[in-house]
Amino acid sequence: MADKGSFQANIPEDAVAEALRSVERVRAGGDAAGDAAAEIAVVVDPAAGGDAGGAEQQAELESLRAQLELSQAKGRETLERLKDQHERFLRAAADLENYRKRAQKEREDVQKFGIEKVVKDLLPAVDGLDRALAAAPEGALADGVRLVRATFEQALAKHGVKGFSALGQPFDPARHEALMQVPTAEAAPGTVVLEHARGFTLHDRLVRPAMVGVSAAPPPAAGDAANEG
């Protein structure tokens, strides 16, 4: 047990050895004895510092912990803000892409169907050529009308306009417009048997339906009605 009031120090063994060597050098005529004392590294036991140093370290630790928690909270807030901004950016990019696609489609539609009104105004002229060709007897006049009509239809075809006939086809309300019913036993009911005007499409879009007459079952004959009575 150490005497009361004695001082305890933790001195490394290599420091003691170095001090002894310095003393030997002094005895041998070397430098002043103070050099030896300067080379002794004395490490005081941390427990000898009392409770004051421990309290300061604890306070510093608590301060660092508080700063860390604050930094983590700010980091979470920044992450949430960046996430929200990223989602808004994605929505804006999607809206922009949808707008671009709509604008592209509208531009294509204008290029393809912008002449639709002009085509509708020209179709009566084509109908007139069809009627003239049907009424004209075969000969030079009919050949001339047929040539004019072919030239007209070729010009329209360059812009995507095509005519179609409905004769002999089942009535289709999506492509045909029925002007009358034709009682006949020569065709099944609902068949197009008359065509007053051909139909036309513009890039496969219906511009005008075919004007047709549709077959219907004929009324029973008078003799058949009497027999039934």
Description:
Among the domains are: 13-40; 116-221, Head domain of nucleotide exchange factor GrpE (Nucleotide Exchange Factor Grpe, Chain A, domain 2). Helix content is 56%, strand content 14%. It has six helices and six strands. Strand 4 and strand 5 (205-208) form a beta hairpin. It is rod-shaped, with a radius of gyration of 54 Å.
Topology:
Blueprint (H helix, E strand, L loop, with lengths): L12 H15 L6 H5 L12 H63 L2 H20 L4 H18 L3 E4 L11 E8 L8 E6 L1 E4 L2 E4 L1 E7 L5 H7 L1
Parallel strand pairs: 2-6
Antiparallel strand pairs: 1-4, 3-6, 4-5
Low-confidence stretches: 4-10, 30-49
Order of helical and strand elements: HHHHHEEEEEEH
Summarize the amount of helix as a percent range.
55-70%
Number of helices: 6
Going by CATH, the homologous superfamily of the domain at 116-221 would be: Head domain of nucleotide exchange factor GrpE
Mean pLDDT: 80
Beta-strand proportion: 5-15%
- For the largest beta sheet, what order do the strands appear in spatially? 1-4-5
Largest sheet: 3 strands, antiparallel
What is Rg? 54 Å
Just name the CATH architecture of the domain at 116-221: Roll
- CATH-defined fold name of the domain at 116-221: Nucleotide Exchange Factor Grpe, Chain A, domain 2
CATH first level of the domain at 116-221: which class?
Mainly Beta
Principal-axes geometry comes out as: rod-shaped
Helix-and-strand structural type: alpha+beta
> How many β strands by DSSP?
6
In angstroms, what separates the terminal alpha carbons? 146 Å
